[in-house]
């Protein structure tokens, strides 16, 4: 039952990307513009990222099964809300509520596994549960494609309800209500500062893609406010004796640098996934089912890459495994700059497989190594930091990636709009989806071709930026995982210090 709960979250992480093109359609969807789609994707991840550590504290206080069941109920209710949303604003709000449900589910799910199993059985249970990520990544796009092929867009959210009913029944009957003997602080100040800071920063970044003048207060003011709130958040958490999010851990070279590298990688993955969703269904004209099937190599690569990376890390220093893999991931993402309207699908599939394989080889082994650098009593705090940094990378990746797409598309499209009526120009500037729909309804095939060309140009520019950001992550990881200086006292260095990277199961000293 716990694996079903985890599967639910991973399915939700992947089905949305397949539904983006449909949601943008004025007839079949909600006529959602780029900013609304960025928020529909980012609101879920934003709530998920900023509430996870608070949800863990709630589980310690009220019982992890209680919190897990509450999360399932919230997830089901918000899924119904999303399915019947009447406009993009309602969808964004429903997706944020779904993120709240996921944030309640995830920490409780892991805590119950830790409490239920001991010894070797615990490692086996966590490993089996972790396979739900691969299953969700593989099944999500295909499931969304099947549903969108035969039903309306809301079906990709409504399908969550029967799964939640099954999970709730099993959890209620089979899972004990463990709770920690020591209740943690709920940290309302940290929750408020982190949520509002990330929301303001994301709003400013998304707003930058909607306007032509970045000197406007509604662009720079939210960005500055977001950065200020996040700085205050870090300062407040650093002064708390037992913070839910401990920024002091990031001061350690291996842990801090490794998490920064993972954050940059998740930034790139979120951005390139956002781009590919519109490329396959919009520019290439694939159906949701075809696009879902075309995305399978990425999931397959990630499923194969995680155990392969762990196996290699047992035989070689992690640095020699993760840094080359992250570099290959960067090049595979940058190869999106070669995509065109007639690029052979077989070549795209190979690139997606390589991308998924290399990403899988990085995330699992590096995450395990980072947590292993900490003493056992700080593993929970380290896990909260790692998960928050990764989800934050995804939020900012969608915001920045979508903004790059909007800005470059609009500038590339401008010359093709000369001489057209003002209403046509304004609608065609919004997005390639709007321009294609307008071209079909007003019988302007040249407008549709111009929109495709402008989108492909924006994809090329975006892919180049994503590649550079991922390469920066590889450089950071190369620095973070460099061997510690050989000193006589190195073996006596305390676990979790910068001078020692302890041997962990399946991870060699780097």
TrEMBL record:
User: Which InterPro entries does UniProt cross-reference here?
Assistant: MFS (IPR011701), MFS_dom (IPR020846), MFS_trans_sf (IPR036259)
- Spell out the subcellular localization from the entry: Cell membrane
- Write out the transmembrane intervals: 39-59, 66-84, 96-117, 124-144, 150-176, 188-207, 219-238, 259-279, 291-313, 320-341, 353-376, 388-409, 454-481
**Membrane topology classification:** Multi-pass membrane protein
The chain positions of domain Major facilitator superfamily (MFS) profile read 1-486
Question: Which positions are tagged coiled coil?
Answer: none
Tell me the PROSITE patterns matching this sequence. Answer: MFS
Write out the entry's keywords from A to Z.
Antibiotic resistance, Membrane, Transmembrane, Transmembrane helix
Source organism, top-level taxon: Bacteria
Main subcellular location of this protein, as a coarse class? membrane
**What Gene3D superfamilies does the record point to?**
MFS general substrate transporter like domains (1.20.1250.20), Multidrug resistance protein D (1.20.1720.10)
Q: Where is this region: Disordered?
A: 487-510
**One Pfam family in the UniProt entry:** MFS_1
- Protein name, as recorded: MFS transporter
| Species for this entry | Streptomyces albiaxialis
Top-down, what is the taxonomic lineage of the species of origin?
Answer: Bacteria, Bacillati, Actinomycetota, Actinomycetes, Kitasatosporales
């Amino acid at each position: 039952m716990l694996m079903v709960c985890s599967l639910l979250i991973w399915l939700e992480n992947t089905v949305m990307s397949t539904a983006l093109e449909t949601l943008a359609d004025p007839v079949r969807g909600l006529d959602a513009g780029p900013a609304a789609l960025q928020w529909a994707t980012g609101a879920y991840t934003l709530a998920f990222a900023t509430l996870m550590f608070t949800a863990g504290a709630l589980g310690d206080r009220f019982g992890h099964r209680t919190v897990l069941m509450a999360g399932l109920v919230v997830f089901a209710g918000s899924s119904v809300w999303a399915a019947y949303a009447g406009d993009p604003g309602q969808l964004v709000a429903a997706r944020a509520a779904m993120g709240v449900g996921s944030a309640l589910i995830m920490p409780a799910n892991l805590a119950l596994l830790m409490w239920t199993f001991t010894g070797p059985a615990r490692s086996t249970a966590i490993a089996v549960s972790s396979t739900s990520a691969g299953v969700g990544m593989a099944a999500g796009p295909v499931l969304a494609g099947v549903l969108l092929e035969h039903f309306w867009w809301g079906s990709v959210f409504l399908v969550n309800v029967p799964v939640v009913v099954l999970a709730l029944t099993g959890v209620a009957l089979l899972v004990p209500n463990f709770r920690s003997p020591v209740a943690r602080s709920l940290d309302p100040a940290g929750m408020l500062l982190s949520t509002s800071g990330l929301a303001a920063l994301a709003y400013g970044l998304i707003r930058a893609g909607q306007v032509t003048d970045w000197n406007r207060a509604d662009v720079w003011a939210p960005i500055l406010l977001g950065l200020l709130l996040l700085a205050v958040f870090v300062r407040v958490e650093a002064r708390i004796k037992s913070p839910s999010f401990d920024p002091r851990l990031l001061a350690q070279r291996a842990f801090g640098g490794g998490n920064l590298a993972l954050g940059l990688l998740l930034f790139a993955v979120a951005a390139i996934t956002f781009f590919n969703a519109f490329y396959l269904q919009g520019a290439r004209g694939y159906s949701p089912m075809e696009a879902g099937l075309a995305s399978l190599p990425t999931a397959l690569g990630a499923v194969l890459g995680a155990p392969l990376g762990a196996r290699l890390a047992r035989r070689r220093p992690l640095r020699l495994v993760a840094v080359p893999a992250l570099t290959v991931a960067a090049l595979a993402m940058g190869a999106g700059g070669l995509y065109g309207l007639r690029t052979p699908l077989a070549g795209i599939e190979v690139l997606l497989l390589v991308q998924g394989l290399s990403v899988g080889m990085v995330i699992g082994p590096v995450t395990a190594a980072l947590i292993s650098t900490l003493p056992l009593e700080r593993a929970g705090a380290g896990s909260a930091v790692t998960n928050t940094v990764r989800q934050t990378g995804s939020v900012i990746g969608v915001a920045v990636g979508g903004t790059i797409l909007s800005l470059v598309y609009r500038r590339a499209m401008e010359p093709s709009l000369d001489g057209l009526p003002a209403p046509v120009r304004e609608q065609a500037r919004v997005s390639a989806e709007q321009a294609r729909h307008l071209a079909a309804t007003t019988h302007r095939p040249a407008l549709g071709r111009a929109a495709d060309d402008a989108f492909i140009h924006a994809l090329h520019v975006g892919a180049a930026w994503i590649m550079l950001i991922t390469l920066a992550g590889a450089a950071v990881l190369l620095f973070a995982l460099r061997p510690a200086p050989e000193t006589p006292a190195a073996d006596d260095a305390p676990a979790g210090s910068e001078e020692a990277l302890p041997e962990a199961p399946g991870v060699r000293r780097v």
